Amino acid sequence: MIHSVRNESGTGRLQVIAGPMFSGKSEELLRRVRRAKLAGLDVEVVNHSFDTRHGSGVVSSHAGLSITSTSVADLAGLLTHLGDRTPDILAIDEAQFFGADLIPAVEGLLARGITVIVAGLCVTYYARPFEPLPSLMALAEEAVKLTAVCHVCGADAAFHQRIHDSGVGDSQHPVEEHVGGYETYEARCRRHLTLPTA
Ligand code: ADP
Ligand code: MG
After folding, report:
1. Atom of ligand 1 nearest to the CA of 28
2. How many domains does the chain have?
3. DSSP for residue 133
4. Ligand with an atom nearest the CA of residue 92
5. I want to staple 96 with a disulfide (CB 3.0 to 4.6 A). Which of 25, 56, 88, 121 is the partner?
6. Residue 135: alpha-carbon gap to chain centroid
7. β partners of residue 48
8. Is the beta carbon of 185 within 6 A of some atom in ligand 1?
């Protein structure tokens, strides 16, 4: 479901795609980007350079879909890359890596007339809210919260957990070592979420 890209006032719309790992956030982002390109819109796709799971310069899903993107190291890099251009749509994957400053930055881009699609984790691997996604969801014209499939029982999984501790950083402050896939994380429903008590 994509509504008109711009509001009548000339400002962009904020669309947020949130959920735990393996919930299909990147798939949904890619679907929207492909659809917008079919419609002839000018679409810019950026990913964080932490996410090198499929090489840099590509947004990809666990199911193997991918699209060319620009990898940037941080929010400043994203804004520099964009410059004063005003694409119809800016799609940002792995938005949790850009930190809380992404919120005012996105608001500035919306004011410039750019529709912003943000995809990212809204929960940490300790099942706590993970900014900036929860705030962006609150501020969005449209927000979808996806679930994965619980690795244990197949129920809807709103969470993911680490299979073993990286020993680096903490869940609220992502570092490159936190990036992983099936070897590092599992999707879990509420019943099968097992977190360390410490
Ligand atoms: P995300 O960006 O949210 O991590 P992706 O879009 O990369 O998710 O991948 C979603 C795809 O991952 C699904 O379509 C499915 O093929 C695959 N997948 C693997 N494990 C799971 C799981 N536990 N729950 C749901 N999908 C899974
Ligand atoms: Mg993804």
Report:
1. 6
2. 1
3. H
4. 2
5. 121
6. 13
7. 72
8. no
pLDDT band at 175 (very low <50, low <70, confident <90, very high): confident
Query: Is residue 47 within 6 Å of ligand 1 at its C-beta?
Result: no
Ligand 1 neighbour 24 (Cβ under 6 A): yes
Query: Is ligand 1 within 6 A of the CB of residue 61?
Result: yes
Give me the amino acid identity at 186.
E
Answer whether residue 155 is part of any domain: no
Lowest mean pLDDT among 45-59, 102-116, 139-153, 178-192: 45-59
Q: How far apart are CA 8 and CA 67, in angstroms?
A: 30
Q: Which atom of ligand 1 is nearest to the CA of 29?
A: 6
* C-alpha to C-alpha distance for 153 and 188, rounded to whole angstroms: 8
Sign of the C-alpha dihedral computed for residues 52, 55, 56 and 57 taken in this order: negative
Structural domain includes residue 114: yes
Q: Is residue 12 part of a domain?
A: yes
Active site residue ranges: 94
pLDDT digits (tens, 9 = 90+) for 33-88: 999 999 999 999 999 988 777 767 788 888 778 888 999 999 999 999 999 999 99
Residue whose tokens read 């197949």: 154
Which residue is closest in CA terms to ligand 1's atom 15?
63
Indicate which CATH number applies to the domain containing 77: 3.40.50.300
Q: Kindly give the number of the ligand 1 atom that is closest to the alpha carbon of 63.
A: 16
Residue 189 falls within a domain, yes or no?
A: no
Confidence (pTM) = 0.93
Which domain does 37 fall in, by range?
2-147
